């Protein structure tokens, strides 16, 4: 029997104990990216308005009824729904700060007739990592970008208690903002004006499809809108629709301000949630890694101890072999038990995460608006309030024009197919 064979089980047992010192490295502070700023004032006629819809929270089907899956995926439905409202506001703030755009609003999903619409889906969101699927297209149907953005947390936002005023995932929003700007810079001044005109006509066609539906054409191949013609200057029906659009814009601003207020209220508790969650995630992952390592090495040590060959020809040698075998087994069992204990400790951190997640509750407040001397009270979620508002605008339009028609979905338009065009 060689010395190497004799001491191998003891070495394995020793490694099982030393494995307890393994650690998971935390994310280091990241370079802080900045969104491209306008270097000179942009004329109003070249500024495009941007509507950022509430994000899809990305909650898997059946997750809410499966507590084990919630803990495993770290997708807490209450949190995700709050994030789906919070994150668009972070992107809006980033875009507004560049002075590259017109009005930037967070809007309900029913809003369509805007110069640029941005939609998003949350793919991954923890205190340590963010991954978003983002799509942007203008009113003509031209897709500006369709891309997945991801990043890890800048831990300075956690360690400084958020005093820097910078979101831990601001770099993600900056990358989105810069890509949107790059897409806009590919457009000519005529392209920008076309986008604005299509927005106007699409809104008008949504209220009066019989009057304005033929002003738009939709290319069969590309699915993009084209202007077939423009309303005559001073067209009374078009001017009336434009006045309605001004009211609609005012209501959208109010809804957007409501989303912003929600985001402001959520800012501090959400930052605290992510700060503590980050510590819990790091601790949990560390313990799970230690548990796996200890259990694996412990099992190997036990196996090695059992398989030590009995090839000694003297009693002294046999005693040494037995001591090595029992030492390896004992060390292995200790490693396995220690690993199990670490696994139980990690469950405590998981429970803490679950408690943090359950702390968010939001309720929509009624919205009171005035229109044509009437005071109206809109109730329900912001999306439901906006749907009710659009119904009221259609009623107002019918009263003013004497036309009664079925109101199409917000922003939709009955358009004629384009006979030709490259798209």
Short description:
The protein has 423 residues and is an alpha/beta fold. Helices cover 52% and strands 13% of the residues.
Descriptive notes:
This protein is an alpha/beta fold. It has a domain of 234 residues. Helix content is 52%, strand content 13%. The protein contains ten helices and ten strands. The strands form three sheets. It has a five-stranded mixed sheet. Strand 6 and strand 7 form a beta hairpin. Helix 1 runs antiparallel to helix 8 and helix 8 packs antiparallel against helix 10. It is globular, with a radius of gyration of 31 Å. The N and C termini lie far apart (81 Å). About 6% of the residues have low confidence.
Keywords:
globular; 5-stranded mixed sheet; 3-stranded mixed sheet; 423 residues; alpha/beta
How many distinct helices? 10
Q: Sheet with the most strands?
A: 5 strands, mixed
Query: How much helix, percentage-wise, in residues?
Result: 40-55%
Order of secondary-structure elements: HEHHEEEEHHHHEEHHEEHE
Structural class: alpha/beta
Say what oligomer this is: single chain
């Amino acid at each position: 029997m060689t010395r190497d064979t004799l001491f191998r089980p003891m070495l394995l047992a020793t490694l099982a104990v030393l494995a307890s010192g393994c650690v998971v490295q935390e994310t280091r502070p990241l370079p802080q990216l900045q969104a491209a700023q306008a270097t000179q004032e942009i004329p109003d006629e070249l500024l495009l308005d941007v509507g950022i819809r509430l994000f899809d929270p990305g909650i898997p089907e059946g997750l809410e009824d499966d507590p084990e899956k919630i803990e495993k995926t770290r997708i807490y439905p209450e949190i995700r729904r709050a994030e789906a409202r919070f994150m668009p506001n972070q992107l809006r703030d980033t875009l507004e700060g560049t002075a590259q755009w017109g009005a930037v609003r967070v809007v309900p999903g029913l809003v369509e007739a805007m110069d640029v619409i941005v939609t998003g889906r949350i793919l991954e969101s923890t205190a340590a990592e963010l991954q978003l699927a983002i799509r942007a297209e203008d009113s003509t149907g031209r897709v500006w970008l369709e891309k997945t953005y991801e990043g890890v947390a800048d831990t300075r936002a956690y360690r400084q208690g958020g005093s820097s005023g910078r979101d831990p995932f601001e770099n993600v929003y900056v990358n989105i903002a810069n890509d949107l700007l790059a897409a806009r810079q590919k457009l000519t001044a005529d392209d920008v004006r076309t986008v604005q005109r299509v927005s106007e006509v699409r809104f008008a066609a949504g209220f009066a499809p019989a009057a304005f539906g033929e002003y738009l054409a939709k290319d069969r191949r590309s699915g993009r809108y084209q202007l077939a013609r423009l309303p005559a200057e001073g067209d009374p029906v078009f001017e009336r629709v434009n006045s309605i659009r001004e009211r609609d814009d005012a209501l959208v601003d109010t809804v957007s301000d409501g989303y912003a207020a929600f985001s402001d209220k959520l800012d501090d508790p959400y930052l605290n949630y992510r700060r503590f969650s980050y510590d819990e995630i790091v601790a949990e992952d560390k313990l799970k890694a230690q548990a796996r390592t200890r259990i694996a090495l412990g099992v190997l040590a036990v196996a090695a101890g059992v398989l030590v060959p009995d090839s000694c020809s003297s009693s002294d040698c046999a005693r040494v072999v037995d001591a090595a075998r029992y030492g390896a087994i004992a060390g292995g069992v200790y490693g396995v038990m220690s690993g199990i204990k670490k696994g139980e400790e990690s469950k405590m951190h998981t429970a803490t995460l679950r408690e943090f997640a359950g702390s968010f509750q939001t309720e929509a407040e009624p919205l009171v608006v005035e229109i044509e001397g009437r005071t109206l009270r809109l109730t329900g979620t912001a999306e439901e309030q906006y749907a009710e508002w659009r119904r009221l605008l259609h009623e107002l339009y019918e009263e003013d024009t004497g036309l009664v028609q079925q109101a199409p979905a917000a922003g939709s338009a009955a358009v004629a197919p384009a006979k030709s065009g490259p798209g």
